[in-house]
């Protein structure tokens, strides 16, 4: 058999183009379904673990999946806006407490998550470097953000405007990085966390002005009296909150109608959760969803699609196997002169069978090694692939 393997190896190397084509076909047919299975299993684990750790979500009436993906995985799609009044209503029930979320803006293509300190306690997020949020204009970033952009406590990160020519909307805000979170292997690693008021400053609901009583630029003064000073549109609006200008920042309007994208609702117990869901069944403005149920429905749809893909791959695989068998059959026909020579040298038909079998073993073994290498690479980067293709 060793001699057969030696001759077969030489034949495979000599016919390198044919051999490479066969190896590639076998590798792809074996690799695709196994790689798909790895990615789906990892996505199921990531999605369900995050959903299972979140009791309830409250948002505006609409797509439950959009609400969950935005609030838990910081997806780009922004759900319908709700107000801070919804958080007060949850608190007034005495059945749960609510953690507000405002996830609309980005900084360096990373989501800016406006929330309260309760969020960090709920998610068990710890500070690895620096400190927690303390004042307006500060941010705490995930480990992935810090690593990708080489940021450290004391550095700054700037929010992105809604559009390139957003003249009337949100001003980019330069935020100081107060701390970096420990790696949690969740979407929190790829987020920039700020206080709700900081998020509202980015929204344009809060802003700072120059101290008109101290300004030396008379061109910004529209009217001056003993009691007040009125400025014109030339008055500078800050894009960075510092100790010197922090007192000049203020908010307009009723804070109870300030925007949120969702509420993370933490009920006191299972009974409280059931009562809360019952209260919002007929509510025309808000609805409460269980992320576990939403993600389970999503995964069922994904695996239903996977079964179709598996069936297609199986059919293509069968066609490939038949094509490979045909290639070997034609190869035997084309090598009749070689086989005749082998028989004339006194070799038996079994020797010819061993030669062909050795070729098949070498090709399948080469395909298996390449397939194993590719699967190792996918397995080592499966979390990144899931976040890139499924959670993004």
Q: Which consecutive residue ranges, at least 5 long each, have pLDDT under 50?
A: 229-238
So how many helices?
A: 12
> Which quaternary structure do these chains form?
single chain
- Biggest sheet record: 10 strands, mixed
What shape does the CA trace take?
Answer: elongated
Terminal Cα span: 53 Å
Mean pLDDT: 81
Total beta-strand segments: 16
User: Approximately how much helix is present in the residues?
Assistant: 40-55%
Percent strand? 15-25%
Kindly name the structural category.
alpha+beta
Describe this structure in words.
The structure is a single chain. The protein has 392 residues and is α+β, with helices and mostly antiparallel strands. The protein has 12 helices and 16 strands. It is elongated, with a radius of gyration of 32 Å. The two termini are 53 Å apart. 27% of the residues are buried.
Task: Please sum up the structure shown.
The protein has 392 residues and is of the alpha+beta class.
Key features of this structure:
single chain; 392 residues; alpha+beta; ten-stranded mixed β-sheet; two-stranded antiparallel ribbon; 12 helices
List the helices and strands and how they pair.
Layout: H1 2-14, H2 16-52, E1 56-60, H3 64-73, E2 82-83, H4 84-93, E3 96-107, E4 110-115, H5 117-122, E5 127-130, E6 138-141, H6 143-149, E7 156-158, E8 174-181, E9 192-195, H7 196-203, E10 206-208, E11 221-224, E12 229-231, E13 249-251, E14 259-260, E15 262-267, H8 270-279, E16 286-289, H9 291-334, H10 336-344, H11 349-380, H12 382-389
Helix pairs in contact: 1-11, 2-9, 2-11, 2-12
